[in-house]
Amino acid sequence: MNHGYPPRGIVPQGGPSQRLNELLDNIRAEFETESQRSVDYEGQITRHIQEIEMIRSKVYSLEQSHVQVKAKYEDEIARLQRELEARGGPSQSSQHHVPSQPPPPSIGHGPSNLFGGIMAGSASQGGPGLAPPPQEPPQPQGLPPHMGPQGPPGLNPAPGPPQHFGGYQPGPSSAVNGYGQPPQPTASPGGKPRPPPRGPPGPATPQQNAAATYPGSPQVPRPTPPPHAQQNGLVAQPQPHVPLSQSNTLADLDIEQLPENLKKEGNDWFAVFNPRARRVLDVDLIHNLPHQSVVCCVRFSHDGRYVATGCNRSAQIFDVETGQPVAHLQDGSLPEDGDLYIRSVCFSPDGRYLATGAEDKVIRVWDIQSRQIKHQFTGHEQDIYSLDFARNGRIIASGSGDRTVRLWDLEEGRQVLHLSIEDGVTTVAISPDSRFVAAGSLDKSVRVWDTSSGQLVVRLEGEHGHKDSVYSVAFAPSGDKLVSGSLDKTIKMWELTAPPRMVPGGGPAGKCIRTFEGHKDFVLSVALTPHGDWVLSGSKDRGVQFWDPHSGVAQLMLQGHKNSVISVAPSPTGGLFATGSGDMRARIWRYSQLS
User: Fold this and answer.
1) Boundaries of each Transcriptional repressor Tup1 N-terminal domain copy (predicted)?
2) What is the model's pLDDT at position 509?
3) Fewer CB within 10 Å: C terminus or N terminus of the chain?
4) Does residue 451 lie within any of the structural domains?
C-alpha cells in the first residue's frame, strides 16, 4: 500500500540543499541584475545632472550675451538719436523711445528713510527725494528714533528751483546750474494731478528710466554761454585770475570750443582736460559691462585681475583682461521675488573670498572657487552700506544705517568690535596698516578709531569740514591722509597726525588741508590711485574727475555714464579704474601718463 512515499529503489532528484542552492542562485542573479540597473540609473542621473549644468551654463551665457547685445543696440540707438537731434531732426520724445529700465532700487526705512532718496527729486518738491515714488510699495519701518518725517540732518528741504539730472536741454530759460529743467506735467491721462518726480530712498540710488544724452555732448546743441560765464573763465578762452573752484568745473567747458589736445571722444563717452592745468593723462574705455539692474558698487581684486560688481540680488565677478563674467554669486536660499541690492563688495587680499553687504543686514563671505558662502555675519539692525577688508585678510569692517561700525574676525567667525555713533554710517575704510578704521556719516563728519582698542582717535569736522552728509572715505596709500566725498559736492583731504592724538570724549579735531571743488552735484564715491598720485571721484552729475592731490586742481572730467556714477575704484596694480552707475552699467577704463 502506497502512502505517498516514493517507491522503493527510486532516489529523489536533488535534496532540500540542492533546491535551496537553486533559490539562492536565483536571488543572487536577481540581486546582481538589480545592482547593475542601479549602477546604470546612477550613471543616467549623473549624465542628466551634467546636462542640466551645461544647459544652466548655456542659459546664463545666453542671458549675458543678450544683455550685452541689448546694451549695444541701445547705445547705438542713443548715438543715432543724438546725431539726428544735432542735425535739427525730430526730438527723441516724438520719434523714438529708448526701452525703459526697471525702476531703480528702493532703499531705506520708510517714507523718511535713512538716506533720503539721494538720486532724484528737487528741493522745491520736498528735498532730494525724501519719500519713495508713489508707484513703490511702502518701505519697512524702523527709523532711528531721532529721525523725524523731515529726513535725516543734511537732507531737509531747501528752497530752490527744481533740477533735472537727465539729458541736457538747450535753451537759456531751461538752464538750471548747467542742466535742463524738466517739463512740468499737470495732469495724468485720467485727469488726476501727477505727483512730482521723486527718487527712491537710499544712498546713491538714481532715478532715471531711460538712457539720456550726457551734458556737454558734442552731438547735442548747447546754448551760447552768457557773457558772465566767459568772463569767469568757464569756456575755453583762458582768462586771468579765475578762482580755483571755477577752473575745476570742467562740466561747464564747451567741448566744441576746446582744442583737440584738451578733449577726447569715444563712441558714447568723452573726456575734457582742464585748460588751466598741464595735461599729463590720457584715458580710454576698455570694457562696458551691462547689468540687469543698477550697479551699486565696483571693486578690484588685489592682483588687479578681476573686478566685482554688486547689483540686485547678486554679485558678479568679471575678468579684467577679457571683460567676460567668471562668477555669479547669489544666495539660493532667499526668496526669488523682491529686490535685494548688494550695496558693497570687497575681495580678501589673497583673492579667495568676496565679502558682500546687502539690504537684508547680512554680510556674506563667498568662497569664489566653490561659489559657496563660507561665512555669514549677522547683527546689524539696518541695511549694510559699506565693507572693507583689512590687509591682514582676517578682519572685515562694516558700516550700516543702524548707526554702527562693526569689525568681524574671519578666523574666529564672530564680531570683535562694535562702535556706535549718533547717525547713520554710509562708508567705512580700514587703513593700509590695519590699525585704524574710518567711517563717514550723515552727521557730516568722519571718525577714525583704533581697531585694537575701539578708542576714537580723531573726528574730522568743524569750520573747514563738510557741510552735508559724507558718503565716501578712503585712506591714502601712505596711511597719513584721508579723503572724503560729500553731498555738499566737495571732496576734502584730511591730514592725520602721526601718531594720531587720542581725543578725550571724541571732540572735534583733525586738519583739512585741501578742498576739491568742481563737481556739479553730490559726490558719491572717492578713491586714490595706488601710489597716491591722483584722487578719483564719481558724482551724481554723472561725471568722473581726476584731481591732483597736491594742488587740488582737476586734471580731467570723464562723461560716459547716462546716470549717477555711484562707485569708482582704481585697480591696486595701477593703470585701470572701474565705475558703476545707475544706468545699469559698470565700465573698466584705462588711464595712462602722457610721455
Assistant:
1) 19-87
2) 53
3) N
4) yes
CB 520 within 8 A of CB 468: no
Whole-number Å distance between alpha carbons of 287 and 428: 28
b or e along 14-38 (b: 16 or more beta carbons within 10 Å of the residue's beta carbon)? eeeeeeeeeeeeeeeeeeeeeeeee
Cis preceding-peptide flag for 499 (omega within 30 of 0): yes
Contact 539, 564 (CB under 8 A): yes
Confidence at residue 134, expressed as pLDDT on a 0 to 100 scale: 29
139 domain residue, yes or no: no
In angstroms, the CA 202 to CA 208 distance is: 15
Residues 407 and 397 sit within 8 Å (Cβ to Cβ): yes
Which pLDDT belongs to residue 15? 67
194, three cell numbers:
501727477
Give domain status of residue 239, yes or no.
no
Residue 540 forms part of a structural domain = yes
Residue 383 CB neighbour total at 10 angstroms: 25
Report the C-alpha gap between 213 and 5 in whole angstroms.
108
CB 387 within 8 A of CB 411: no
What gap in Å lies between CA 198 and CA 125, rounded to an integer? 8
> In the chain, which residues have pLDDT < 50?
91-116, 118-201, 204-241, 500, 506-508
CB atoms near residue 52 (< 10 Å): 10
Locate 77 and state its grid cell. Answer: 540707438
Instruction: Answer yes or no: are the C-beta atoms of 272 and 557 closer than 8 Å.
Output: yes
CB 282 within 8 A of CB 556: no
The predicted pLDDT at position 503 comes to 53
Cell numbers at 445, concatenated: 563728519
Residue 278 has what pLDDT? 94
- The pLDDT, as a whole number, for residue 89 is 56
Q: Is 277 exposed, middle or buried (0-12, 13-18, 19+ CB in 10 A)?
A: middle
Of residues 519, 527, 500, 522, the one with CA closest to residue 511:
500
Cβ atoms 563, 544 nearer than 8 A? no
Its domain, for residue 469, covers 244-593
The predicted pLDDT at position 517 comes to 97
Domains held by the chain: number: 1
User: H-helix or E-strand containing 282?
Assistant: strand 281-290
Q: What angle do CA 421, 427, 428 make, to 5 degrees?
A: 85
Closest by CA to 324, choosing from 574, 68, 69, 565, is: 68
CATH for 407: 2.130.10.10
